[in-house]
Amino acid sequence: MSYNLGQIELSISDERLLKAGLEKDALKKGDTESYYFIRAKEAYKNFDFSQLSAFDKLEVNKVRELFSQDEELSSRPLLFVMYILHRNGFLDEKYFKDPKRVFDLTSKEIIRGRNVNVPEGIITQDGKLYGIGKDGHIWLFNFLNLSGIDTSDNVRYSAFCQSSNNIENFTTQQTERKQFFSRLKEIEPDASPLYISDNQAVAINHLRLCYNMATPLQTFLMNNTADLGFAGSDSPHAFKANLDTFWKACPNDPLDRTTMQAYRRAQQTHNKQ
C-alpha cells in the first residue's frame, strides 16, 4: 500500500533526532513541555492520519510490528509514535480543555453530578484526573510528561462496570463501578510505595462518593487500593503517611487505625500460607 508521507515536514535525520528526544522526555517528570514534542507536532500538523485507519482497531504492539515490517512506514522513524499519540487523541490541542477527558476531582461538582462518566486515567498531585486513550495508562503517562504535566507520585485509576445477566427476563443489569487506585505499574518498580497528596486523597474519596457511596472510606481503601499502605503487602511507611493524609483531607469519613492494621496483618498471614 502506498502512503502520502510527503506531508511530513521533516528530514529523516531530523525525525531520528526528534524520536530520540521524545523517548527520553516521555519518561522525564517535570513542568515544561518537551521541545522535541513541540517540533514533532508542528512537523506532523498537516499529516493525514486517516490514511492509517486500517491500523485503528489493532493493539499497539501489533501496530508496532506491522510498521516495522512495512518498508515505507518504517522509513519514517517518528511515524509510529505520532500515529499512536494521534489515535489516543493526544495530538488534539483541545485535550486539556475537554470536560470528558480532564477532571478536577477536588471539586464537589463531581459528587453532585452522579451521572458523570469519569474515564480511567492518571490522578496528579493537584487532584486532576487525565483520561486515557485507546492504548492505556502508559501512553497517557508519556503524553503528560511530554506536555509538561508533573507526574510525580501520580495515582493510576482503573475502573470497570460489571454486568449480570437475568436469565428469566433475558436482560443485562449493570452493577456498581469497580474502582482501583495504585502506582503506575507499567513504568514504576513494584517495591516503591506511593505517597499521595491531600488533593489526591480528596480525589479518591470523591470518586468513591460518586460511584460507591454505600462503601465506607475505610473499607474502600482496604479493598480498592494497592501501594498506598492499606494492603498487607504494602509499605508500612506508606500506611502511616497516607492514613494521616486521609484523616486530614477527609475529616468527615472516619478511619480506625487499629482495624486497618489488623486487616493488613491478616492479609500478610494469608499471603504467607
Describe it.
The chain has 273 residues and is an alpha+beta fold. It contains 11 helices and 5 strands. It has helices at residues 12-25, 35-43, 60-69, 71-74, 79-87, 109-112, 137-146, 198-211, 217-223, 236-249, 257-272, and strands at 102-104, 121-123, 128-131, 155-166, 171-182. Strands 1-3-2-4-5 form a 5-stranded antiparallel beta sheet. Strand 2 (121-123) and strand 3 form a beta hairpin. Helix 1 crosses helix 2 (35-43) and helix 8 packs across helix 10 (236-249). It is elongated. The model has no long low-confidence stretch (mean pLDDT 91).
Overall mean pLDDT = 91
Using DSSP, what is the number of strands?
5
Order of helices and strands: HHHHHEHEEHEEHHHH
Q: What strand order characterises the main sheet?
A: 1-3-2-4-5
Percent of residues in beta strands: 5-15%
Major beta-sheet overview = 5 strands, antiparallel
Spans where pLDDT lies below 50 across 5 or more residues: none
Radius of gyration: 22 Å
Count the helices. How many?
A: 11
What percentage of residues falls in helices of 4 or more residues?
Answer: 40-55%
* Oligomer status: single chain
Structural class: alpha+beta
Q: How widely separated are the two ends?
A: 57 Å
User: So what's the overall shape?
Assistant: elongated
